[in-house]
């Protein structure tokens, strides 16, 4: 990983002042290679999908449900994460699908008008990430 600048608590306090702040920490695996895209203003940004497993499914007796091979049955939450830092493409280029990441992200809601009415989306803007483990070949 290239020199990744991480915000410190003092920086965050000075930036946020008296406003509220929503932050999430996610630990999951990359679903595909991160993609570099162009914003309307011409600046590039990176998006990637992170698969985060839910707790194991349980039956009516409270026992963990297992499949035919004996593996625990779980559902997965998928999150799309945006990284707007200018150096994002450089240090995200070598991440492969299956890489496990711990991601800190700020949470923002966005309202998008559609024909059926307004739709609220949750935008996850990466603050920092750390590689937990690489995909095993």
Strand order of the largest sheet: 1-3-4-6-5
Q: What is the helix tally?
A: 2
Biggest sheet descriptor: 5 strands, mixed, barrel
CATH superfamily: Nucleic acid-binding proteins
Distance between the termini: 19 Å
Class of secondary structure makeup: mainly beta
Second CATH tier, the architecture: Beta Barrel
DSSP strand (E) fraction? over 45%
CATH class: Mainly Beta
> Mean pLDDT, rounded to whole units?
84
- Amount of helix: under 10%
Gross geometry: globular
| Secondary structure: number of strands | 6
Q: Count up the domains.
A: 1
Q: Could you give the order of the helices and strands?
A: HEEEEHEE
Protein name: Nucleic acid-binding protein
InterPro entries: NA-bd_OB-fold (IPR012340), Primosome_PriB/ssb (IPR000424), ssDNA-bd (IPR011344)
Organism: Cutaneotrichosporon oleaginosum
Pfam families: SSB
Structural key phrases:
mainly beta; 137 residues; globular; 6 strands; 2 helices; OB fold (Dihydrolipoamide Acetyltransferase, E2P)
Chart the SSEs and their pairings.
Elements: H1 9-16, E1 23-30, E2 35-38, E3 44-53, E4 76-83, H2 88-92, E5 100-114, E6 117-133
Parallel strand pairs: 4-6
Antiparallel strand pairs: 1-3, 1-5, 2-3, 3-4, 5-6
């Amino acid at each position: 990983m290239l020199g990744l600048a991480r915000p410190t608590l003092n920086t965050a306090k000075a930036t946020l002042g008296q406003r509220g702040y929503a932050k999430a920490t996610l630990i999951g695996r990359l679903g595909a290679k991160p993609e570099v895209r162009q914003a309307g203003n011409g600046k590039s940004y990176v998006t990637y999908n992170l698969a985060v497993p839910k707790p194991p499914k349980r039956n009516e007796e409270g026992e963990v449900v297992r499949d035919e091979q004996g593996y625990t049955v779980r559902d997965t939450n998928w999150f799309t994460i945006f990284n707007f830092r200018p150096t994002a493409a450089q240090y995200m280029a070598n991440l492969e699908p299956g890489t496990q990441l711990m991601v800190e992200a700020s949470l923002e809601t966005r309202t998008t008008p559609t024909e059926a009415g307004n739709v609220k989306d949750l935008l996850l803007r990466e603050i920092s990430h750390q590689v937990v483990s690489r995909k095993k070949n």
